[in-house]
Amino acid sequence: MEKERNEWVYTEKVKDHFLNPRNILEDEQSYEDDGKGIVGNIKCGDRMMMVIKVDKDKNVITDCRWKTYGCASAIASTSALSEMVIGMPLEEAYHISPKDVTAQLGGLPEHKIHCSVLGDKALRAAINDYYQRNGMPEKVQKEEARIICQCMNVTDHEIEDAVLDGARNYYELQERTKLGTVCGQCKDEAIELLEKYKKKHFGEA
After folding, report:
1. Nearest to 164 by CA among 143, 141, 193
2. Which active-site residues does the annotation give?
3. Helix 72-85 vs helix 12-19: angle between axes, to the nearest 10 degrees?
């Protein structure tokens, strides 16, 4: 039993990226980025900064660096993500999902999938920042949250985060977000989104 508790539950790729993280931002002051994204809150224990350099003629990412205060999954995920996007067109990089990063790592424990979200959110923020700096505001894609449960003020983003955090049915979703605990009128839409995000991130129908 003691042995099981001490076993490393991650893949060798996760272990490698955690112990030997690639593309860490070593000198923030001297790094001349073309785009910067910061997400998370240091008070909550997870904060991510990602910076990119871009070939402005080709709109291709030529370098990607990052700095984070996070767990092993967050560090490994962002390390892998930084390798994936170097040499990638901005449009393609913008649409990389936590599922893509998890696949690159050979998998993550389900309750750790949400840790991989910080990296791709920071990347999208950095790409949007690049577009803003270079006079392309029409390319900035805003991720505006939509309120699903009016009574408890729960958004579609919070439902997606709950799914990434392990919610697999309506009751588990309620436990994590408290949606539908007053009038219950949001139940059908919440279940529809639950199934959508399960399929998006885990391939579950």
Report:
1. 193
2. 44, 115
3. 90
Q: What are phi and psi of 65, to 5 degrees?
A: -125, 160
Asked whether residue 205 carries a pLDDT value surpassing 70, the answer given is: no
Task: Identify residue 87 by its one-letter amino acid code.
Answer: G
pLDDT in tens, 124-146: 999 999 999 999 988 888 777 88
Q: For the chain, give the mean pLDDT.
A: 86
Output the CA torsion 23→77→50→164 (10° steps).
Answer: 180
Residue among 154, 93, 101, 151 nearest 124 (CA): 93
Give the pLDDT score at 3. Answer: 47
Q: What is the mean pLDDT of residues 16-26?
A: 94
Helices (H), 86-137: 90-94, 98-104, 117-133
Residues 6+ positions from 27 with CB-CB distance below 8 Å: none
Report pLDDT for 67. Answer: 92
Evaluate if residue 165 carries a pLDDT over 60: yes
Contact partners, residue 108, CB within 8 Å, separation at least 6? 10, 11, 14, 73, 77, 102, 115, 116
The conformational region for residue 112 under phi > 0 = left, psi -120 to 50 = alpha, else beta, is alpha
25 close to 79: Cβ distance less than 8 angstroms? no
